[in-house]
């Protein structure tokens, strides 16, 4: 234990009671087995520890729980971590660790949670992580990992959470991703993935959050995406083409639908008005045409509606005035005409209203004076 302490920099204060005395089980952040006094847990999170993780940690064979998140640890993750054969939980997130993820982690057959996010780790995701039979949470987000997502990872029926956002991963989304039958969280946002959305995407029925935004995914949105039961569907910031599949209007569990910043064409399907639980609808930055469907006024939970920067025509539908929870309405930079409907002033929660860059006429409805939450209006309506 003293060797582990010696690896940490500036541990003198934070670990002052790690003094080499007999009762190591009373030291800060240490928990032991009541009978054998073997160390079971090390919780040294958010103590501003510097230095490195000592290879001596591998000598703690009974260790089940390690939490070192939120420090300033540098260096590489020692290979000896693979000798902690009883380990169930390993959180090294929010440090300054670099180098590869050691293959030795794959020896941890009891491991359930592996959380290495927000470091400076490089190299590939070891395909041998698929050999950890009980792995439920794999969070490697916000590192500098490269290469493909190992296909073997997708054949883990126990995995519940896969967080890979903010790396430099390449390759394509494998059709095997739907073999993750226990997974509810799939996040590969902000990588360099290419190819198309797998046609079998509708088979990922356990997913609750699907975020593949800000990659280089192309092609059309598959029709059977409508079979998903996700609460969040984030496809924004890709190179998706074609029309918005009408079947998305049948995805009743959707709370967030983000298809913005793609190259989608055609009309906004009126059936989206059926999404009665959706709070955020982002379709901005595409090439959508046609009119704003009045059916969107049926989306009673809607708080954010962003349709700006498209090629929409016609008038602003008065039905949007039924959206009592609407916080932001952005229709800027389209080809909309006519007046602002007076009953938009019935949206009592409205904070941001942007219709700049259209062909609207008339005046600002008098009822807008009563919208106490409205902060972003004058600048936006300077054309009037």
Automatic annotation (TrEMBL):
Highest taxon, organism lineage: Eukaryota
What lineage is on file?
Eukaryota, Viridiplantae, Streptophyta, Embryophyta, Tracheophyta
Under the heading Gene3D superfamilies, the entry gives: Ribonuclease Inhibitor
Its source organism is Aegilops tauschii subsp. strangulata
* CC annotations in GO: membrane
Q: Which InterPro entries match?
A: Leu-rich_rpt, Leu-rich_rpt_typical-subtyp, LRR_dom_sf, LRR_N_plant-typ, LRRC69/RLP
Q: What protein name applies here?
A: Leucine-rich repeat-containing N-terminal plant-type domain-containing protein
Keywords (alphabetical) are: Leucine-rich repeat, Membrane, Repeat, Transmembrane, Transmembrane helix
The chain positions of domain Leucine-rich repeat-containing N-terminal plant-type read: 2-33
